[in-house]
Amino acid sequence: MTDELRDRFFGVFAAGLDPVSQALLIGIAAVLVVAGVITFALPSSRVPDPMRRELRQRWTTWAIIAPIVVAGVLGGAGTTALLIAAISLLAYREFARGTGLFRDPIISGVFVLAVLALAFGALDNRFAQFTAVAPIATVLIAIARLLRDDPEGYLQSVSLGVVAVLMLAVGPAYLTMFTIDERAIPVLLSIFVSTAVGDVSAFIVGKCIKGPKLAPNTSPGKTISGAVGSLVITASFAAFVFGSIYDGTPLDTPLRLAILGVLIAACGQLGDLVLSSIKRDLGIKDFGASLPGHGGLLDRVDSLLLSSPAAFYFIANYAGVGIGSATEIFTG
User: Which of 8, 81, 121, 182 shows the smallest number of beta carbons within 10 Å?
Assistant: First the structure.
């Protein structure tokens, strides 16, 4: 095994920890500790009990999620692929229950195969195979649904299956594609942290400033102030962090870093709104209840569904992703 592959597949245990990743990990730990102290010290005389319970639930969930995500990223390409595949499959489970897609096990089977093919394509560094998964899965879903010989609900089932593949399988899988790059660990940590910053800042700014609703019929809890505050905070954070990661590369210009930051922030909010629209159409509040204070897993990862591919293609266009890295590792 070459040094490149050893670093990629054994992550921080082989390559060590770069300064940006160190700073991000220290920041994550510090924020969790400070937020925990503040959250559990809130006086009942000033903060209503329902709000205190919600904040404590949210903090507890973040305290569980953060170490799992960090461990997956630091472990290298293999553990990152497992983490992303698990997110996709668990999110699909909630999506299938909410939409009724679980009644079409053949479509669910195609989705699982798509997740596995995307993971393998990313790990084997076969981008052509990786990008072919979406159109092939779309065709397979359309054909597989014919096996029921029941045209009623055909369009709905096929459409839901295609949406699931594109958003829940392909979208997050671009995070696994980042593992071919030598900067994978800081980039992945930055994307995860940026989306978390976006969610938390939107919640805090929206609660503090309030004001007009952003899209009252789509997501009643979101305010314009929260959306704008989140956009500014998240874009600024992402631009600063990615500027440190890609220092001295063609991506390292104020304009390009600002655009990247806005892309991650805006796509995170759009992913949230897309899933909110689906929930409103279904007449449900959350896709699940697996994460106290947040709803289901899909309610938590919706910000990653559009921001991950947007970040991948923008970074690849200016700085490249994994240029010169080994290809067809398993099949070559």
Answer: 182
Question: Residues for the chain: how many in total?
Answer: 332
Separation between Cα atoms, residue 114 and residue 117, nearest integer Å:
5
Alpha helices, DSSP H only, in the chain?
Answer: 3-10, 12-15, 19-41, 49-74, 77-99, 105-123, 127-144, 154-164, 171-177, 184-209, 224-245, 254-282, 297-301, 304-318
Global model pTM greater than 0.85 = yes
Residues 6 or more apart whose CB falls under 8 angstroms from that of 108 comprise 92, 96, 101, 102
The whole-angstrom separation of Cα 201 and Cα 206 is 8
Determine the Cα–Cα distance for residues 301 and 92; give it in Å rounded to an integer: 12
Q: Where are the domains of the chain?
A: 3-318
User: Across the 332 residues of the chain, what is the mean pLDDT of every consecutive 10-residue run?
Assistant: 79 84 96 90 75 84 93 95 97 94 93 97 94 97 92 93 97 96 95 93 87 89 92 96 96 97 95 93 85 82 94 96 86 76
CA-to-CA distance for 303 and 312, rounded, in angstroms? 15
Place of tokens 């209840």: 289
